[in-house]
Amino acid sequence: MRLTNRIALITGAGRGIGRAIAEAYGREGAKVAVADLTLDSAGETVAAIEAAGGTALAIAMDVTDEQAVEAGVQQVVATWGGLDIALANAGIQHIEPVHTLDLADWRRVVSVHLDGAFLLTRAALRQMYANGGGTMLYMGSVHSLEASPLKAPYVAAKHGMLGLCRAVAKEGAEHGVRSNIICPGFVRTPLVDKQIPEQARELGISEQDVIRNVMLKNTVDGQFTTLEDVAELAVHLAAFPSAALTGQSFVVSHGWHMQ
Ligand code: NAD
């Protein structure tokens, strides 16, 4: 096992990519704090980890709520005595062109990704600095590195998370903290399934064309990235043994956006 007894906290881990990573961390021997908007959704992931023989804790946490993030991190430390790995994964999407976008929708998307990543980072770093180090991970996107139409708040927030990741790599180094960002292409999760009909409507094309000619157009093989692909990369980055890997973005996308 690659993460034996490491203490990890993952936001937005009640379903989708966060859940897949939480389960993978559990299989690799980590103690996994599963944070999501409700205890019920977090609890489903916890039950799956425990059923597989792992150790997990459900935490109700809206990542835009400063008090909730502080309390959640404190709960992890009170339960297991520290925090080694924190992954800012919670995310939402909004499909609309910039010129009709409400300020409220802009703020909602930017806040979940960027305020959420900041609040988790601040709370986690205080623990990691006190305990001699740790690993910060961010769930970016290919949209941390390039843009698509109809997703301005998401693209802007994901670029911002890349900047935060790099800043944390610089500040964290002297405290033994590494910081990296995972940048997936399209993965079939509720977040993506919801936007297929939305994009079809906005672009005036079929859902099949959204998948083939928008989402997977720039992959080398027309394939979706899988939950397992992203989880394997997240395990690898958490387990990497030295600070040689820090401040980096890792694109997992079937070749969409080669860097
Ligand atoms: P998802 O919708 O399946 O899961 C997102 C999770 O985040 C849900 O459990 C939801 O309850 C939680 N969440 C939403 N707002 C929250 C908040 N304010 N506080 C706490 N939790 C909150 O989505 P997913 O596809 O698994 O996405 C996870 C992350 O991966 C996101 O950051 C997303 O931007 C990123 N990502 C996804 C894809 C993809 O193709 N699915 C690609 C690149 C990046």
From TrEMBL:
**Pfam families in the record, alphabetically?**
adh_short
Q: Which domain of life is it from?
A: Bacteria
Any one of the GO BP annotations = monocarboxylic acid metabolic process
Q: Which CDD domains did the record assign?
A: SDR_c
Q: Which family does it belong to?
A: Belongs to the short-chain dehydrogenases/reductases (SDR) family.
Query: PANTHER family this protein is in?
Result: 3-OXOACYL-(ACYL-CARRIER-PROTEIN) REDUCTASE, 3-OXOACYL-[ACYL-CARRIER-PROTEIN] REDUCTASE FABG
* Name recorded for this polypeptide: 3-hydroxybutyrate dehydrogenase
The record lists the organism as: Marinobacter lutaoensis
